[in-house]
Amino acid sequence: MNISNDSYAMLLICSDLALKNIGDGVKAFTVSQWSKLAQRLVENKLMPGALFDVASENIKKTLNLSEDEIARVERLLSRSGQFGIELSALNDKGIFTLTRFDKEYPESFKNKLKKHAPPVLYYAGNLSLFNNKGISIVGSRDIDQTALKFTEQLSRRCTNDGLNIISGGARGVDSIAENIANKSDGTTVIVVADSMEKKIRNKETREAIMKKQSLILSPFRPDMPFQAYAAMERNKYVYSLSDFVVVISSDYNKGGTWAGATENIRNNWVPMFIRKADEIPQGNINLLKEENVNAITEQIFSEDKVNIYDWFISQSISSNDNLKPQQLSLFDL
């Protein structure tokens, strides 16, 4: 993919590739820092590429940047040579980049996360999968046999009806759903929080990518080791890429599944269904008490003549305004 001048400016400012080559502890812009800078650009009808001329009196005055801000942007932009080398090395491994400015960037991030959408994404696989309808199937790493069977049946049903399986790629429910989709020649969109390079070396993952049936993406650098904050932050990306989310099993008041589900309730990103059965974890019980939360039971598997996506629509009691088309600004702020 060709990278425009505007996208390249965003990459240099927001990606942490090749940072060690500029020293002095200079860090890439965070999501919130970039959003504030982008807001200034939007207000002054400037494109990101204008930042290559950040030291000019015109740009400094127009954007009202401090000397420290100017110096930081200049240092980040100055690593273009080494950055290009590292980016090319990633491309050779099958890993590419998207920025908020690129037309291929997922609209659901812009609509739902708005200024909190990550400026830069790394990806490997089929970008056209962003256009498919998708269901996130999430849950704890350790689940009982009933939850395991439910996950397998639901994943197979969604796959057979042509829906993306969307997950965070973690052990447990996430991996079970992904594996069912891969074995059934279904499509998957996996948001990873760490070790993207390792993920795409997995045999099943590589085969799915080669068949254009999988898309692996991450807002974190592809060689990043596990970090707890990144695993938690991944939740909102998984949810935001989905049309509906199904929580299979959740602990109460702890763990990534609980954190993601409660964050979704607060932000109303996407309609959410909680597995209901005779024996379910305490987290499920408490989530089912929340307003605008839907229950899903094994009865769904007896309604095999109904398209699963249509079923989710018919059963959803959550009025999610984020699903409606919106007018977006240049950086979807």
What does this structure look like?
By secondary structure, this protein is α/β, with parallel strands linked by helices. The chain has two domains: 94 residues, no CATH class; 198 residues, Rossmann fold, CATH 3.40.50. It is built from 14 helices and nine strands. A nine-stranded mixed sheet has the order 1-2-6-5-4-3-7-8-9, with helices on both faces. Helix 7 links the parallel strand 3 and strand 4. Helix 7 packs parallel to helix 8 and helix 11 crosses helix 12. The longest helix is centred in the middle third of the chain and has 16 residues. The protein starts with a helix and ends in an 18-residue tail after the last helix. About 3% of the residues have low confidence.
CATH 2nd-level architecture of the largest domain:
3-Layer(aba) Sandwich
User: What's the count of strands?
Assistant: 9
| Proportion of beta-strand residues | 5-15%
Determine the mean pLDDT. Answer: 91
How many domain regions? 2
CATH class of the largest domain: Alpha Beta
Shape: elongated
Number of helical stretches of at least 4 residues: 14
Rg estimate, integer Å: 21 Å
Biggest beta sheet attributes: 9 strands, mixed
Strand order of the largest sheet: 1-2-6-5-4-3-7-8-9
State the CATH topology of the largest domain.
Answer: Rossmann fold
Distance between the termini: 25 Å
Structural class by helix and strand composition: alpha/beta
How helical, in percent, are the residues? 40-55%
